[in-house]
């Protein structure tokens, strides 16, 4: 199935083969993306998070660090992503007692010819998975949910802010 350039699927050539998009002619601009996710858990597990301890250590600090590390490895994990020189990655894990879980928000920045949406989404995904890993010994029923791009700025496609954020 050949990709039609008008359909916006730029990761496929005219013959339908995957390709890394050529961004060499694009202007480098300041770019930012933020993404979020949620890990739902039992009240008892959330209490461990609040106390900042599990058998493996502080779950939120470890998840935040893992998210940063994940953003830096995005091009190694997602086949057609460009490796980007990240200028900033911030990951925050916040307890949400009302929803019985932890909200993860990641923000990535760069100056370059392509955006950092995948880096922000990867940071959130890895942080959520790490939180699950840190706590799975006490709660295998945790659910990772609502991973989504919240916002992006910069680039030719312009700014974006999701309706769910």
Condensed summary:
The protein has 165 residues and is α+β, with helices and mostly antiparallel strands.
Rounded average pLDDT: 91
Named CATH topology: Alpha-Beta Plaits
Compute the separation of the termini in Å.
35 Å
Total helical elements: 4
The number of strands is 5
The low-pLDDT segments are 1-6
Order of strands in the sheet with most strands: 2-3-1-4-5
How would you characterize this protein structure?
- Helix 2 (59-72) packs antiparallel against helix 4 (117-135).
- The longest helix is centred in the C-terminal third of the chain and has 19 residues, at 117-135.
- The chain has one domain: Molybdopterin cofactor biosynthesis C (MoaC) domain (Alpha-Beta Plaits).
- The protein is of the alpha+beta class and 165 residues long.
- It has a 5-stranded antiparallel beta sheet with strand order 2-3-1-4-5.
- The protein contains 4 helices and 5 strands; from the N terminus they run E-H-H-H-E-E-H-E-E.
Layout of helices and strands:
Elements: E1 29-40, H1 43-50, H2 59-72, H3 74-77, E2 86-96, E3 101-112, H4 117-135, E4 143-153, E5 160-161
Antiparallel strand pairs: 1-3, 1-4, 2-3, 4-5
Helix pairs in contact: 2-4
